[in-house]
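Q: Here's a chain of 239 amino acids. Please give me its 3D structure as tokens.
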Amino acid sequence: MTSLHDRLSFLLKKAIRDYRLIDDGDRVLVALSGGKDSLCLLQLLAERQRILRPKFNIEAVHVRMRNIPYESDTSYLENFASKLGVRLHVVETAFEQHPDSKKPACFLCSWYRRKELFRLAQEGGFNKIALGHHQDDMVRTALMNLTFHGQFNTMPARLTMRKMPLTIIRPLCLMQEEDIRCFATDNNYQKQKKLCPHERETNRTEIGTLVDMMERLNADAKKSVWNSLERAGLLTEEP
């Protein structure tokens, strides 16, 4: 019987191959938030880089936001990365939210985190950034875009940036969130010490409920959405 670890390792390998996520000689910067998805991503990529082909190198970065009162255990993340033989960079940033701004704190936080990721990647000579979005994230994003923006699109598995020499990759794109959750439990991943105060019920939560309803109608509903994205050529994006 195939173990969960073996199945996720296979799905990582398949995603890398099917969507051409990693090539020989790549230097990949892994965004390590401290959540289960990014921890799983770092562990599986660290194991994968020991394989002969493709030959690539990974390092990780944890971006701390000074003005948002949440906290990940940095020492835990450093030990986690060290045991995998991965160098971890810890950087800090912050943002100011103008009282008249229509941009929510979550948007600004994400924007400034990405800005730090891009800066460190370019200064460190990385050509790819790996993010921990799984298939459920990508299916929900497609349904959110369809429901609220009238367009069928999602976060691609591979996105080549137009304005900088970087490619965004999502190696967990073929994995289900529930499998990652079980994998996190099996490996005793530590949770954040203090959650973000802006975490709340959102449209994404409601879309998750919609997906559950769709699966009650058709157990393969998520697969159908994914196959539609595949056929439309929306899982890779080139400049």
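Q: Can you summarize the key feature?
A: The chain has one domain: 4-237.
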